[in-house]
Design the sequence.
């Protein structure tokens, strides 16, 4: 009997992650209504952390991360802090040779500006700072070290590609990093559940992720007084977002990913950004049906 119970438990633990959760077919159908007309490839993964039910569309398809790769980099640098390689408030010196174009504020810092490691980490997530991210990536041991942590933690597809030997072909296909909707949502859930690196590291990472500056996409359709941890990734033909909402009736996490986008405009009504808002609005109404909250009329005028 004991051996039979052991074998049964082992078989359960070895099942693929996807098989451990029940599918919410009603929600999945409503998500299909939004994604099936998208001009490109769209993927969505949703999990209600209270009920364990999921909805998945192309959830195991590999998508470019763009700046969402900064979440694994975040985990990587906190892993180094946990092992004593760095201190969270360790003094650092910024050099203008570290400047990177694109999003972020650090590229405008003067050479020899003094900062704490906390400043660098926070800017990487809250303002999606590229210079800060490459700095953190290097301190974390580079893509190879971060990818090793991801592999050991059960992530099959989520990887850093840039500046990582042996991943040149993947970089050509996906850019800086790659993931699937299911895996990135699971990584953020690990952080939420105090399971990434350590409870102390997870809680600090989660706090950082709840102060994101880029709130005009999926976050726009969540009440501003409800806490949500998130990260966004944006390049011309791929716009994606991961969000974990601390909703009144139970947390839920979702990842909306796109690639091969026909609409590559950098305007508020870009199709992929509109899709992110629609998915987010659907999920809020679905999980909080008694809520009467709506974005204020005319709020979108502030985007221009």
Sequence:
């Amino acid at each position: 009997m004991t051996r039979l119970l052991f074998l049964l438990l082992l078989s359960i633990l070895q099942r693929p992650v996807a098989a451990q959760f029940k599918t919410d077919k009603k929600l999945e159908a409503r998500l299909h209504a939004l994604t099936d007309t998208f001009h490109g490839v769209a993927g969505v993964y949703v999990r209600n952390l209270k009920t364990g039910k999921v909805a998945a569309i192309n959830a195991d398809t590999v998508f470019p991360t763009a700046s969402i790769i900064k979440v694994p980099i975040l985990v990587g640098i906190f892993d180094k802090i946990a092992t004593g390689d760095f201190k969270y408030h360790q003094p650092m010196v910024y050099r203008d040779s570290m400047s990177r174009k694109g999003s972020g504020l650090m590229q405008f810092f003067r050479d020899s500006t003094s900062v704490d490691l906390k400043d660098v980490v926070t800017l990487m997530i809250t303002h999606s700072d590229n210079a800060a991210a490459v700095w953190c990536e290097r301190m974390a041991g580079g893509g190879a070290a971060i990818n090793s942590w991801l592999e050991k933690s059960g992530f099959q597809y989520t990887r850093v590609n840039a500046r990582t030997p042996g991943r040149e072909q993947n970089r050509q296909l996906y850019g800086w990093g790659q993931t699937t909707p299911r895996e990135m949502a699971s990584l953020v859930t690990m952080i939420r559940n105090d399971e990434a690196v350590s409870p102390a590291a997870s809680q600090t990472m989660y706090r950082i992720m709840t102060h994101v500056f880029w709130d005009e996409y999926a976050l726009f359709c969540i009440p501003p007084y409800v806490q949500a941890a998130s990260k966004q990734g944006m390049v011309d033909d791929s716009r994606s977002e991961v969000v974990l909402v601390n909703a009144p009736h139970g947390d839920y996490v979702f990842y909306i990913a796109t690639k091969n986008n026909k609409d590559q405009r950098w305007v508020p009504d870009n199709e992929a950004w509109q899709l992110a808002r629609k998915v987010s609005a659907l999920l809020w109404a679905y999980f909080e049906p008694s809520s009467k909250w709506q974005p204020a009329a005319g709020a979108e005028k502030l985007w221009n």
